[in-house]
Amino acid sequence: MVAPGMESVAGARRMIRAPAPIPEYSSMSNALNIHVKYRMWTNFETIFEKSSTPSYGGPPALLVMTVDMTQPNKKTEIEADLLQLARIALSGRTQDVQVILRRFAKRYSPSLPHVSDALTALLQELPTQASPLRQADVPLPVDLDSRLHLLRVETEPVLDHEPIFAAKVTEALTQIIAERRQPQKLMRAGLDPTRAALFLGPPGVGKTMAARWLARELGRPLLILDLAAVMSSLLGRTGGNLRQVLEYAKTMDCVLLLDELDAIAKRRDDHGEIGELKRLVTVLIQQIDDWPPSGVLLAATNHPGLLDPAIWRRFELHMEFPLPDRAAITRFIEGMLAPHFAAVREWSGLLGVAFAGRSFSDIERDLSVSRRNAVLEDIPLEEQFGRLLANGAIAKSRRIEMATELVEQGLASQRKARELTGVARDTIRRRTMPAKRKTTRWPNGKDTS
Fold it and tell me: Where are the alpha helices (DSSP H) in 195-293?
């Protein structure tokens, strides 16, 4: 029998009375008990609800709604997710709770966008060890034997001068920053920001400076792995130290730099390596796989060919840092000398030619040495730079090349180039003179060239 007012939904819901043996319905729990006792053995589930219209003179009637359980049940998914979240929260694993909440934000973004946005906002506002509220709660990890800190921490990274990056490197770093500043857009699309990036290139080309610059732009502390403290002579201790560092960094919104990665991630098929280093690679792989999207993991190496292939695959982004070209060297010199040297523009081009093929760190070192010598000897900086260009340690062939380029590019006259490089003017003249056209005289008396 269908109660009055329920005719319009009679096809989907029907009113029933409880069987006689069942006592009066004093609460919804009794109705749910009925559901358990009389569960159907088909692929349908019967859900009981209280009706707003009681049956005639009897206990409250129940609505029976049939739901096809072969289709995805959103309510069941949410219940399972809540149970999983409660289980992890009760275990006290704060980091895992954050990971689960990020997954929820992505999963429910299409169906519950307001909930997804709220979860994302809460995760961004969450106080971390990087904030003053918790910075002193957990001490830095240390080696158990030496008691040395395993990390060097730069809470607010500072740069002496702005770095000069190649175009592709600038593009990749800018992408990382954009992803971190707009996480909600990525989350709505079911995506995570770039978690790990690998810096490749020769020494002194700006890999460590790039990590420092990225941390400064993101407003996060920079943590740098101290290899001297991490490496231990005791079996298994190095892996434990590395695990400590990564577990500590996972709890922070930080930028972690693993410098000289090839020292701890060498190829495992190298028969010359001991088993301890091979186990270290396994530890590192597991830790990188578990790295949370909230942090930025960077690694740098001068010897990419030594890295284990599995390590390569763990880094989503690979950045090649080349040796600077002449334009980059000139800009770098101007940035370094501008506060201290009035004639920097006149000399930056000359020095750019002299330092061609050198790394940023080499150039910075030589410029600093020149400035110190000029101060100690009380001579103009121009004179000291002239000595630098005429340095006898530079091969003669290279000095001839420098003098030729100085003249051809209009940076100096032949006389000035001779004074700066010590190369004879006749040599410079022969190198810079336009080639004579070859003339051929034919029997008919005509010349062709």
Answer: 207-218, 227-230, 237-250, 275-289
Residues 264 and 169 in one domain: yes
Which tokens in the block code for residue 324?
A: 């600077």
d(CA 120, CA 106): 9
Residue 315 and residue 176 share a domain: yes
Closest CA to 270 of 228, 309, 231, 227: 309
224 vs 6, higher pLDDT: 224
In a domain, 366, yes or no: yes
pLDDT digits (tens, 9 = 90+) for 368-391: 999 999 999 999 998 888 888 777
DSSP 434: P
Same domain, 257 and 114: no
Running DSSP on this structure, what letter comes out for residue 307? B
Establish if 384 belongs to a structural domain: yes
| Residue whose C-alpha is closest to residue 297's, from 280, 282, 314, 320 | 314
What tokens does 332 get? 């770098």
The CATH number that applies at residue 163 is 3.40.50.300
Q: How many residues does the chain have?
A: 449
Q: Are residues 244 and 101 in the same domain?
A: no
Q: How many domains does the chain have?
A: 4
* Crossing angle between the packed helical segments 425-432 and 414-421, to the nearest 10 degrees: 120
Q: Are residues 161 and 261 in the same domain?
A: yes
Helix (H) or strand (E) segment spanning residue 314: helix 309-314
pLDDT band at residue 215 under the 50/70/90 scheme:
very high
- pLDDT tens for 240-293 read 899 999 999 998 889 999 999 998 898 887 665 666 778 889 999 999 999 988
Quick one: three-class SS letters along 6-67? CHHHCCCEEEECCCCCCCCCCCHHHHHHHHHHCCCCCCEEEEEEECCCCCCCCCCCEEEEEE
C-alpha span between 72 and 332 (Å, rounded): 60
State the Cα–Cα distance between residues 107 and 72, nearest whole angstrom: 14
Which of 320, 342, 364 delimits the end of a domain? 320
CA-to-CA distance for 53 and 18, rounded, in angstroms? 15
Percent of the chain with pLDDT over 90: 32
Question: In terms of domains, do 228 and 364 share one?
Answer: no
For 16, the domain range is 7-68
Most confident of the following: 203-207, 265-269, 424-428, 445-449: 203-207
The pTM of this model reads 0.67
Average pLDDT of span 170-177: 96
Tokens of 253: 């919104």
Backbone φ/ψ region at 217: left (φ over 0), alpha (ψ -120 to 50), beta: alpha
User: Does any domain span residue 405?
Assistant: yes
Can you list the alpha helix ranges (DSSP code H) found in 91-140? 94-107, 113-125
